[in-house]
Amino acid sequence: MGAATSTAVDPFLSLRTLASYSCMSVRKLRQYLHDSVHPLPHYRLGGKIVVRRSEFDAWMAAYRRVGQADVEGIVNSVISDLRRA
User: Fold this and answer.
1) For position 54, what pLDDT does the model report?
2) pTM for the complete prediction?
3) What CATH fold (topology level) applies to the domain 12-65?
4) Which of 7, 10, 42, 54 is the most buried (most CB within 10 A)?
5) Nearest 5°: phi and psi at 6?
6) Domain boundaries in the chain?
7) What is each CA distance from 19 to 48, 51, 56, 63, in whole angstroms?
């Protein structure tokens, strides 16, 4: 199979299907296609735009944010436990 072959495990998704999968609007996805810094990877087949699901997932992972730990809360909890001991 070639690199651009759709499979059941890693299908190509139309923008409408991708909008449903990602909970984003088609309009927002179209904006991301042309983002100058981090464009959404896609293929143009004739007049149709499709996105491989695995490439979308990897693209989204670049935007992942991890919350900061509540350091103050942890310190206060440890101090409180030490005072009780």
Assistant:
1) 96
2) 0.68
3) Molybdopterin biosynthesis moea protein, domain 2 (3.90.105)
4) 42
5) -80, 140
6) 12-65
7) 15, 11, 11, 17
Residues linked to residue 41 through DSSP beta bridges, in sequence order: none
d(CA 82, CA 39): 51
Locus of tokens 């087949």: 45
Q: Band of the pLDDT at 24, cuts 50, 70, 90?
A: very high
Confidence tier at 14 by pLDDT (50, 70, 90) = very high
Residue 66 to residue 50: CA distance in whole angstroms: 29
CA dist., res. 6 & res. 8, Å (int): 7
How many residues appear in the chain? 85
What is the secondary structure of 12-60 as a DSSP string? EEEHHHHHHHHT--HHHHHHHHT-SSSPPP-EEETTEEEEEHHHHHHHH
Structure tokens at 1: 């199979």
